[in-house]
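Hello,

Our lab assistant flagged a job as stuck in the queue for most of the afternoon. It eventually completed. Since we weren't sure the result was trustworthy after the delay, we are filing this so someone can double-check. Below is the sequence as submitted and the structure that was eventually returned. Let us know if re-running is recommended.
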Amino acid sequence: MTDSTETKRVTLHWLDDLRFEGGEPDGPSIVVDADNATSPGPMLMLLMAAAACSGADVVSILKKMQVGLESLEIAMEGERRTEHPKHYTAIRYTWTIRGLGLDETKARRAIDLSMEKYCSVLHSLRPDIATSYALRLG
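-- returned structure --
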């Protein structure tokens, strides 16, 4: 590895059925259930990771724009292939944001910066996934 890379590590332990628990070694852990019965499964976690990554970017960018953020919600939809591998072919974000000093221009600028430049999760996905968003100002 070179100095320009960062290595992330996780460990998963099988619990039962299709359930695993894991996280960073010696860090907090979560349960992943591939059946989506007791906790979100890997494909839902992927949507959640993309939402959290973009959400963190947008919160930071709006703060720099001096927006007094009051609430932010991100709903995600992912369309998947029906054949294996059942990867996502399209991902759609629906942003609902409310804050003092917030307008559509600032909100769209923050979201666009996240999706086009900053969100490392989104940029780690297949480049042929169609990505879009809708915006609601609260």
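-- support follow-up --
The delay was a queue issue, not a problem with the job. The result is valid. The domain at 1-39 is CATH 2.20.25 (N-terminal domain of TfIIb). The chain is about 30% helix and 35% strand.
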